[in-house]
Amino acid sequence: MPQLNINGRSHDVDVEPDTPLLWVIREQVGLTGTKYGCGVAQCGSCSVHLNGDVVRSCSLPVSAIKASDRITTIEGLSKDSSHPVQRAWGAIDVPQCGYCQSGQIMAAAALLAKKPKPTDKDIDEAMSNICRCGTYHRIRAAVHIAAGNAKVGSADALTSDQQNV
Amino acid sequence: MKKTISGEMAKISRRKFLVVSAAAGGGMALGFNLPFGIGTAAAQSAAEAAEVNIWVVVKPDDTCLIRIARAEMGQGTLTGLAQLVAEELECDWKKVATEQITAGQNLSRKRAWGDMSTAGSRGIRMSHDYVRRGGAAARMMLMQAAANDWNVPVTDLQVANSVISHAGSGRSTTYGKVAAAAAKLTPPDPKGIKLKDTKNWKIAGKPLRRLDTANKLNGQKIYAIDLKMPGMLHATVKNCPVFGGKLTSFDDSKVKGMPGVKGVMKINDTTVAVVADTWWRAKKAMDALPIIWDEGPHAKVNSASIAEHLKSGLTSNDAFADIDTGDAPKAIAAAAKKIEAVYSVPFTSHTPMEPMNCTVKLLPDRADIWIPTQNAEASLAALSSSSGHPLEKCEVHVMDLGGGFGRRIGNQDVVRQGVAIAKAFPGVPVKLVWTREEDQAHDFYRPIAQCRLSAGVDEKGNLAGLHLRVSGQSINAFANPAAIKDGKDKRQLQGLWAEPHDAQIGYTHANLRTEYAMRNTHLPVGPWRGVNTNQNGIFLECFMDEVAKLANRDPLEFRRSLMSERPKHLAVLNAAAEKAGWGKPLPKGVYRGIAQFMGYASYSAAVAEVSVSPKGEVKVHRCVFALDCGNVVNPDQTASQIEGSVAYGMTTLHSEISVANGRVVETNFHNFRVMKIAEMPKVEVVLPLTHDFWGGVGEPTICVVVPAILNAIHAATGKPVRSLPLSKQGLTLV
């Protein structure tokens, strides 16, 4: 029976070894913040951290995970939504439908852990998650805010004279 | 009455389900997470809150629960509607919460909340008046209750931020204290209520933060796909990959013994389902299930044969003319210079990030469904007809959608499938989730279309005539044939209509002819964000640039010369041009394109700045939009919708839905390429509002995104882009 360390807690899970980590997290452990979007590691909705690196859990069989591996899901990113990425996301209302945002936030958090001051090019390369609502404009702005590269309001699409109409 | 609604709902939730709130971050194994409305908010309402009217429930702690009837799928309508009610209610915005009503609640109260359908960018523009009257009526009742208590005329009272005060006596009270008494008063006649002038708005019209962001940041938001209930089973389906084909047989002996499998069943002529104790096990068994399909009469259809079929409509004599002013063909034939072009756009898919899903529970005397739906009442009707239970014994629990874009409006295919599966498991909640592959293969696609356009210009470079013929698939013919009057399907000419107010063509001319020839295919089609304004915007606006070039005129100036009778269209065009700096120098290699179009009662224009490398790499640097939607409830969310329309529109530069052997080729994101952050341009928005009408926001701007970009590519390369995706022209979006 595989043992998984998720968000600092140990879980014994009873599943077939080829079960993707995503479905173990969602259906066995019961954490549903990590989403199914494509099942083929294309969209990134299922992004979690494995020992600090962002991975696409829909295509990672649970058999590839060791008991010593540290898995962090969106629920474990911070206790109270206080991670700089979560705060930046909230400050400028990045999410629309929100479905892909757990994955977007996990990808951004992993990027900032490695590159605290990312350039636009860094963001383009690291943030390959799909959002159909099209929140990319604000995701870019929020990553810069979380990195301390920009302030809230500086990247608004609305020109300042349009803020009160 | 007031208590029954919430009381009834509370009873349902307590009796039928063990409601345990999802533990934050704790890994609460196999917990149950029925989220809102069904249990929590409604139950609290019953316990202590007072329903002042259908829109406003006030708790003793002054929390104002504002009821929302439209679906929230990311477009921000929930926050916008709450702003409108709160503006008239004069409540403390910091203490506003919202509560989604269900289709059953609306039905049981004779549709007191009106239309629940959330499509056609109508969430706010079609309900702003009655929700504001609802807020105002509640305010009047709360103030009257205070006046009665103090025995003073209500006209002597003031109100602000949920506090009612009487200057004469220095007394004050709060909404929470008088709500119970207010709820017993006779409501004022809504028609007699004078609403605030929008100039005096304090909550509406402001770029307030959304009310529904917090739990989208920490994984706590429960979408329908996330629901957990005691004893729940999980299902997935496979439909005949060829539209019009049927299920012949399957060999369930191969999968019945697989772990967790509870059932394999034919649920209708074209669909097989697998049910298991977890979704992953159901999916794995489905992948292993041998299925034989009768592929039916369309198994040899492909994109090339569909294109030929549409091409026949470009010159056939079965088209109808909508606008037919003067004699466009004759004027063009006699013109000094002429141009003709054929444009084409492919099918495309909605592909919302949350796959199609629903949870159904059937009891002997009742049916419940939890579903992300854009039309809860259509879901209710489908639940009733497919379950056999009368409407009043059915309930649709509307879950916030993980994307909609038109996919979850009219076609309640998922409801009927979910019910068919749940019938095999009475009393057990069954959650049906489609794979992404199933979603791509069985969408209701944006219609395919071609367009032949011809125009002439005189010696002075003025337009002599314009003739436009659309040939393509009809949404109405597939989904709503009754809407086609006298064989004339005007809907496919959306955005090209002569009539004002909704989707009017932006140009007038003495010789103008618009036509549509219906050419249907075997693919199901439906509304896709912006619907027919998408392709019609490309056809007209890209061709306008071709004609302007023939006339040797600037594209902006040429358009202006045809817009003197369309002041609102012209104003947004000018606003976009001005903001973008039209005519001013650009960095080397960067070119501009412009477009304007109308849809959903709003006027849109865009300017795109694009460069094209020698290898054909297209980079969109900047898009500037002007939108006149009359009034704006939340300018920041309006900007957000415009930003989103850029990404949704630009994906059609990358990808198409093509057909081979009767079925869809693009099965997942590896071959249906979706726009990502690296391709996202800088977006700027101006809102030149005229305040004399209410237009939509979610859809209107998408129809100018692509033509503005294509016109910029044309400017950069000297070659018009007449068909999509860009790969057909040897171009790639980077």
Can you walk through the features of this model?
The complex is a heterodimer of chains A (165) and B (734). With 165 residues, chain A is an alpha+beta fold. Chain A folds into two domains: 3-76, Ubiquitin-like (UB roll), CATH 3.10.20.30; 84-146, DNA polymerase, domain 1. Helices cover 30% and strands 12% of the residues of chain A. Chain A has five helices and five strands; from the N terminus they run ββαβββαααα. In chain A, helix 2 crosses helix 5. The longest helix of chain A is centred in the middle third of the chain and has 14 residues, at 101-114. The radius of gyration of chain A is 17 Å and the shape is elongated. Chain B has three domains: 49-216, Aldehyde Oxidoreductase, domain 4 (2-Layer Sandwich), CATH 3.30.365.10; 224-296 and 356-433, Aldehyde oxidase/xanthine dehydrogenase, molybdopterin binding domain (Aldehyde Oxidoreductase, domain 4); 303-349 and 445-733, Aldehyde oxidase/xanthine dehydrogenase, molybdopterin binding domain (Aldehyde Oxidoreductase, domain 4), CATH 3.30.365.10. In chain B, a hairpin with a 5-residue loop joins strand 19 (449-457) and strand 20. The longest helix of chain B has 23 residues, at 128-150. The model of chain B is unreliable at 1-31 and 34-46 (pLDDT under 50).
